[in-house]
Amino acid sequence: MSPSYLSVFLIFCRNSLVRDMTYRWNFLFDAITSLAWMSINLLFYMLIYEYTPLLSLPEAGSADPGWGKYQFYVFISTSMIINSIVQAFFMPNAEEFSELIRTGNLDFALLKPIDTQFLISLQKIEWSSLANFCFGIGLLVYALLQLDYAPSLAQVLLYPLYIVCGVAILYSLTIAMSSISVWLGRNQNLYDFWFYITNFSRYPLEIYHGRFGDPLRLTFMYVLPVLLVVNVPARLLAKPFEAQQWPLALFTVIATGGSFWLSRRLFQTALLSYRSASS
């Protein structure tokens, strides 16, 4: 991000924070509601681990024993971190994109001397959603301290990289779906559809196995790569790194670049089809 774009982004951050602090009780209520929802989800998995030491069984012939309690807490916290970033920085703007098209206010964005996708993607930030980010960081630290092994320095350094990859993949999916609003006029069900798709990323790869699981795993790894979003960074940090993980880790980087490129092309194509309010 160039210095000029960084300064614009910081202005967006400040303006959004001023807006949220104007309605402080609403901000606190949103943050508390998000934390309560995350706590309920965590309690659900705590209950499961009262009855089983492993949440998912390993594949046949694999030396991986599955996901233990604290390993899965790393998985959950990784999901919280990634989704909170997307929901704070990108989802509010993606939901508002269709309204800009309907009202014709997209004209004003197109006239500004700045990249339109950057402006559309980041002009509004929901700071209350970052409460889940803090919760996820706390849970991650706790889970790592409880593991029976310590991640290597390389694993710790690679983890943020794959967090960025996960955020970029979800952002690409979000901007691609919001771009469709140019042709549909309105896309009010964006958040629901996004939730249905990304819900597959909230569970380990091991459960997608068998008659119905294999097609789902192939679809959501190679067509819509949402299964890579949480599984790769969580597995990287929660378990000892093995040589057979390198192909999946490398593919994640390729899928991230491909997803971002395709979503940007779709966004630019959508803008070419846009008819301003004055046309």
Summary keywords:
279 residues; 71% helix; 0% strand; mainly alpha
SSE inventory with pairings:
Blueprint: H1 3-22, H2 24-48, H3 69-89, H4 91-103, H5 106-111, H6 116-122, H7 130-146, H8 153-179, H9 181-184, H10 190-198, H11 213-222, H12 227-238, H13 246-273
Summarize the structure.
The chain has one domain (3-273). Helices cover 71% and strands 0% of the residues. It has helices spanning 3-22, 24-48, 69-89, 91-103, 106-111, 116-122, 130-146, 153-179, 181-184, 190-198, 213-222, 227-238, 246-273.
Helix content: over 70%
Question: Which range does the strand content fall in?
Answer: under 5%
Number of strands: 0
The ordered H/E elements are HHHHHHHHHHHHH
The helix-and-strand class reads: mainly alpha
The main pleated sheet reads as: none
- The poorly predicted ranges are none
Terminal CA distance reads 34 Å
Any idea how many domains?
Answer: 1
Radius of gyration: 20 Å
| Overall mean pLDDT | 85
**What count of helical segments does DSSP give?**
13
